Every structure is written in C-alpha cells, then in structure tokens.
Amino acid sequence: MELLLLAVAIAGVSLSAPLIAATAAPALAIAFWRNAMAVGVLGPLVLLRHRAELRGAGRRVAAAAVAAGALLAVHFGAWLPSLQMTSVASSTALVTTTPVWTTLLLRVRGHRPPALVWAGTAVAFAGVLMLTGVDLSLSARALAGDALALAGGMAGAGYVLLGAEVRRTLSTVAYTYVCYATTTVLLLGACLVGGVRLGGYSGGTWLKLALLTVAAQLLGHSLFNRVVKGLGPSVTSTAILLETPGAALIAAVWLGQRPPVVAYPALAVILTGLALVVMGDRRRCA
Fold it and tell me: pTM of the entire structure?
C-alpha cells in the first residue's frame, strides 16, 4: 500500500515542473500559492477532526513540525528562483542531491546506513546526471542559481528527516497542515519583502496554480509525508529522484517536448538505485 501511495506521490510531483513552466507567475508567488491553497483545503478538515491532536502535541513535536515547514520554505524559495538563473539541467541535478544529504545527515546523527543504501543512492543520482547532464556555468548569475538549487536539495533532506520524526507522533493531516502553514507564512514574507506580485493573474494562471496545488502539493508532498513514516527517509528521499524522468515524460505528452533518448535508460538506472536502497533499508530493519 505504501509503495502504491509513493508511486502516486511521484506522479503528482512530476507534474510540478511542467505546470510551473506553463504558469505565468513569479517563481516565489507560485511557491506561495501552492502552499496557501493547500492550507485552505486542509484547514476545515483540521478544525473538524484534528484540533484535539494539535492541542495535545508537545512543544518538541510542534517545534519540529514548524522547523520542517521552514525547511520546505527554503527548498521552494531557493529552487524555484534558481530555474530562472541557471540551466534547468544544472538546477535539477543539484536540487535532487536530497538523498545524498539525507544519507549523510543520518550518518551524522549516529545511524549507520547499510552499504546497499549508499550504493543505491549513488546509482540513483547517477541516473539523474545521465538525464540532466552536468552543465555548470562560470557566470556569476548561473553560479548563484547553482548555489540556490544546491541549498534547495539540502533543505529538502532536512525536511524529509524532520517529517519522519514528527510523523511518529502526529497524523499526516495534522503534520502536513502545520508544515504547509509555516511554509506559507514564510514565503508570504519573502514575497512581500521582495515585492513579488501575488495577484492580477489570468484565469488560466489561477487554474494552473490550482492544478499544481492538487497534483504536486496535496497528492505529491502530502503523500510523501504519509509514507515517510513507514518507508523511512532514505527510501522516500531516493524515490523523489523519479520526479526528473517523470517530469520529462509528462512534458513529452502534455507540452510536446520529446524527452531525450537517454531518458529511458536513466529511468531504469534510477529505479535500480531505488531498489538497492529499499533492499538495504529492509535488511537494516530486519
């Protein structure tokens, strides 16, 4: 069941890049609205069914959920603008370093990921590099974009790890609501400080923002929050790498952008790496 939900989550976030590319709105505004709309959807459900759960959450759990939301805000706030500063290939390759940082952070925290987890992470990331290539530029703007994308990948690792911790106590809905609400507030502040236009869009743009919220946020990140409890941070963060070939295939069908020939072997390599991580993680838990 969890692997099926993980597949749905990957399909949801794979729609993210094509929808963002087709949405005529500033990057930070897109990040803000996808979270704000998700909070609007989850709010009534939380008020009706999860108020007692949130009241009963201890300070430590609440602080961890807020911290996860802050890291998610950094992830979105760094990665989306990087797409306009550096090549899409560089941005994608660097932001998808998340499983690498996840494995390293687990090691720093005293966990000893099995050799298969390390090997699977490396193989999966190699598949992403096959698809995106290494296209680092020496221009100051491009290097700044590369740095932002890398920061987004690091923040994503912290977000996944904190989510795994909080989900031991809070339900998916309660944790996701606190996380997205924190992300929304922080991104709103960034938009106001940066003078980012938050309205005046066309009806088509608002429709794309709504679709992005449903697909990438509610069916994507929210389901990642659901499965990270059972699958663990290593498997979940590595599976996110499938977003890259998934987005390429969706762009081919929806936007008419034919994926490169290497997309198909790259997908096979990423799946092989993910399988190694799953095997290593199960051996550790056995």
Answer: 0.82
Query: Whole-angstrom Cα distance, residue 252 to residue 165?
Result: 37
The backbone torsions φ and ψ at residue 109, rounded to the nearest 5 degrees and listed phi first, read -80, 5
> Based on the number of CB atoms within 10 Å of its own CB, is 274 exposed (0-12), middle (13-18) or buried (19 or more)?
buried
Beta-carbon contacts of 42 under 8 Å, excluding residues fewer than 6 positions away, are: 173, 176, 177, 180
* 266, HSE (Cβ side, Cα atoms, 13 Å): 24
> Which residues lie closer than 8 Å to 207 by C-beta, 6 or more apart?
none
Which of 124, 139, 96 minimizes the C-alpha distance to 271? 124
Dihedral sign from CA coordinates of 85, 89, 93, 96 = positive
pLDDT, averaged in runs of 10, over the chain (286 residues): 85 80 88 96 93 91 96 93 74 76 83 80 79 62 83 92 92 95 97 95 95 90 86 79 73 66 74 78 58
222, 223, 226, 228: CA torsion to nearest 10: -110
pLDDT of residue 214: 94
Amino acid letter for position 116? L
pLDDT for position 250: 73
What are 228-233's contacts with CB under 8 Å, separation 24+?
Answer: 228/160, 228/163, 228/164, 228/167, 229/164, 229/167, 229/168, 230/2, 231/2, 231/3, 231/6, 231/281, 232/164, 232/281, 232/285, 233/102, 233/106, 233/160, 233/161, 233/163, 233/164
Cα dihedral sign, 93-99-101-103: negative
**Residue written as tokens 């690792």?**
157
Say what the pLDDT of residue 283 is. Answer: 59
